[in-house]
Every structure is written in C-alpha cells, then in structure tokens.
Amino acid sequence: MYKLAIFDFDGTLVDSAPGIIDVMRDCVEEYKLSNDIYKEWQQLIGVPLMRQMEIIFPDHSEEYWLEVATRYREIYDGKTIELCPLFPHLITMLETLKASDIKITIASSKRRHLIETVLDHHKLSHFFSLIVGAQDVQNHKPHPESVHLTLQKMDVTASDAVVIGDSTYDLDMARGANVDAIGVTTGIHTTEILATSQPKHIVKGLDEVLPIILNGRISNKSAS
C-alpha cells in the first residue's frame, strides 16, 4: 500500500477540461485567433498559463502573452466552481484513502487559491494534507519539483508515493521524481498518449485508481 497519493487537479479530480476549453474558445473568438491555435491550446491543459502563451504565440511579445492570459483569467475566475464539477467516485475514494491513513495531496499547475475555492465549496478541503499550486514552485510540470517538494513536506520516500494524473505532464513529472504513476483517461490525453510516458497503470476513472493505491505496485500498463 502506498503511503502518499499525489493527485493532479484538472481532469483528474474535477471534470474541468470541457470548461477550460470553453474559456479558451471565448479567448480565441475575442482575439480572432486561428482554429489551429485553438486546437494546439487545448492540448496544453495542465501546463502553466504563461507557458501556454509562450508555446502558442512564439512570435508575440511578453506583453501580448500577459494580455491574453489576463483576459483568460478574467473569464475563468468568474465561474471557477461552475467549471470544476467533481468526477464520479471522488468522495468515496477520498473517504477510503483517509480511513486507510494514506496521505492525500495535490500537485497542480493551477493557482492554489482556485483549487482551494473549489475544495471549500464542496467541503473537501479536510481530505488534503498539502496543495502545491502554480505559485509554489519555480519549475512546473513536467519538471519533478512539485513532487520533490511534496515528498519533503510529507516526509515520505519516493518508493512510498504515487502520482495520479490525466496528462503526460503529470506522468513525466512522476517519472522524473522516480515515483510510480497512474494515468487516468478522464482528461485531455488518450490511453495511447498516456502510454508514451510509461506509467505503471492506465485506468478509466477514480474507482479504478482506489484499489491500485490500496494494493500498491502491481504493474498493468494497459487500460482496464
């Protein structure tokens, strides 16, 4: 049994990808951007917003990146709770993990206060021992800093921890920290894409994540 479960937030604990994509579409329409940019942007969910700007607007200035990012945040922040519905089985999973004395944390590229807003709204904050958000690290996913920081603060070794995420950014972060990973196909990346990051498991939902965390380290890299 693992001692620590490190969850991504968007697309892993909450079904936020559709709402995020809607906000991206609003920005694309407002700034009259191309459909190619829209498609590329969608694949960057899980990457810090300013890094997204650098990737999709390589020929624009930092001032332009900041302008678009600020507008995105204005739209998104006004309906954060609405855009972050809980995935099925989340509460049961959290209750079971807590009852089993497994530490539960979040490592996300989202700003921490937005995560806290959603958790507080759903009365779930007490389940989480630590939230590492975008402002808490210098190096963002797929860099392993978020995992290293979590292990240090939770006083848990890498071999006793597992990362759960819906994107290759999460799984590559785990691999860089020598931590086991579980990919879930509830977000932006398919089974085939997740498999390129070589997680220990790939599953379809949180109900399949729970027994893996409880039973630990039996490898199964195909989707259940």
The strand line-up of the biggest sheet is: 3-2-1-4-5-6-7
Residue windows where pLDDT falls under 50 for at least 5 positions: 220-224
Using DSSP, what is the number of strands?
7
Shape: globular
CATH class descriptor of the largest domain: Alpha Beta
Structural class: alpha/beta
- β-sheet strand percentage: 5-15%
Radius of gyration using CA atoms only: 17 Å
List keywords for this structure.
DNA polymerase, domain 1; 224 residues; globular; alpha/beta; 2 domains; seven-stranded parallel sheet; Rossmann fold
List the helices and strands and how they pair.
Blueprint: E1 4-7, H1 17-30, H2 35-42, H3 49-56, H4 62-77, H5 90-99, E2 103-107, H6 112-121, E3 130-132, H7 145-154, E4 161-165, H8 168-176, E5 180-184, H9 191-195, E6 201-203, H10 206-215, E7 220-223
Parallel strand pairs: 1-2, 1-4, 2-3, 4-5, 5-6, 6-7
